[in-house]
Amino acid sequence: MARKALGRGLDALIPSGAGEGEEAAGEGLVYLETEKIAGSPFQPRKNFKAAAIKELADSIKEQGILQPLVVRPRSRGGYELIAGERRLRAAKLAGLARVPAIIRDVDDKSGLEISLVENLQREELDPVEEAEAFRRLLTEFEYTQEELSRRVGKDRATVANALRLLNLPETIKDDLRAGRITAGHARALLMAGAESLRRSLRDAIVKDGISVREAERRAQAGSGKKKKKASGAGAAAPVSGGVHIKQMEERLIRELGTKAKIVRGTKGGRIEIQFYSAEDLDRIYRRIIG
Which pTM was predicted? Predict the structure, then answer.
């Protein structure tokens, strides 16, 4: 069966047809008790603003739920949410005992895909959440970067730039989550080589409100003469153990914006880095040589 692109929307991932549930609610819909729906393990969104949930709950009281939730059956009974966590939270807050839903028997990969595309379409993910969802599809579900970019409806450069944000320290990722800086500012901070420069530049962005272009100019000016060290205090630890290799693979994926694999042999091994066009190869090459 041909795989459908996420960029086409939820309809491309959720085929029509009658579902099974406790109470039929029209073609493809059922009404399910809210207490029988467990949270989603695929939810890429981590931050839910209480005020926004309250506002949605008030709207639900007036107009009901305009778009059904998507769930899948659980082997131990009940259902597991795939898409619609904000609606479920707001429905519970509004006091609804039942909610409209579409039941689909999907695997983990499809569950994450549906959850990801819904949030992307609604623009509800912050930049860090989006990047973490992309990384999960690349590493846990073994997507290639080309396949990932095609399925989420974004070009490879956009996906690669999103993944780079995961290299930032947690304090700056917290700024991104809170909306104190933009993704453009964050990418400028990635250009700052020294930690002291990064901290001062972050403060200028947050406190003085400097533009992305100005942040990029300052980052380039401050780190233009610095070279990456191949050894010394900043050098990577020796390769040892499967867990460490997995961490190194994930770091390569984030740094290069493409799928990478470390293959070990008895006396050595190799690093496999995928590219998908001459342009992509040139981008990866320039990324490696700095």
Answer: 0.57
